[in-house]
Amino acid sequence: MDEKYNLAEGKHDDIGVFVKTNKNGKKKVYINFLTVKESPLEFVHSKVSINVKQMKKFLEFFGDWADKNNNGYLMWDELKSSDKIYTAWNDYVKPPETTGADHMPDRETTDDMPF
């Protein structure tokens, strides 16, 4: 990940996130500007509240990352502990597909292959 997006641990109120290193040593960005609550209504899955100012700053901050790494998309995961729903930024980037030529770079591409 680019150094710009390697946020220091702790609370970043300007963009509405909290950064913490998990047990595996990977930094997780927890999103505080977005609050999700379960709905008591059967036909409503969840209720979402957003702090607009913090979300705008978050989108401005991570917008270039999204354009460069994920076709302009940002993803976050709604996670559930025993009694609370929380949100974490998902920075997974799909690796580029590997072609046959990538697997065997020493082979020449000719039409005389038997298969």
Blueprint of the fold:
Blueprint: E1 10-12, E2 17-21, E3 27-31, E4 34-38, E5 46-50, H1 52-69, E6 75-80, E7 85-90, H2 100-103
Antiparallel strand pairs: 1-2, 2-3, 4-5, 6-7
Give descriptors for this structure:
115 residues; alpha+beta; 7 strands; 19% helix; 30% strand; elongated
From the N-terminal CA to the C-terminal CA, the straight-line distance is 41 Å
Give the count of structural domains: 1
| Strand numbers in spatial order across the main sheet | 1-2-3
Helix content: 10-25%
Counted by DSSP, the helix tally is 2
Biggest sheet details:
3 strands, antiparallel
Q: Provide the low-confidence segments as ranges.
A: none
Walk me through this protein's architecture:
This protein has 115 residues and is α+β, with helices and mostly antiparallel strands. The chain has one domain (3-95). The protein has 2 helices and 7 strands; from the N terminus they run βββββαββα. It has helices at 52-69, 100-103; strands at residues 10-12, 17-21, 27-31, 34-38, 46-50, 75-80, 85-90. A 3-stranded antiparallel β-sheet has the order 1-2-3, with no helix packed on it. The protein has a two-stranded antiparallel sheet with strand order 4-5. A hairpin with a 4-residue loop joins strand 6 and strand 7. The mean pLDDT is 86.
Characterize this entry briefly:
With 115 residues, the chain is α+β, with helices and mostly antiparallel strands. Helix content is 19%, strand content 30%. It has one domain.
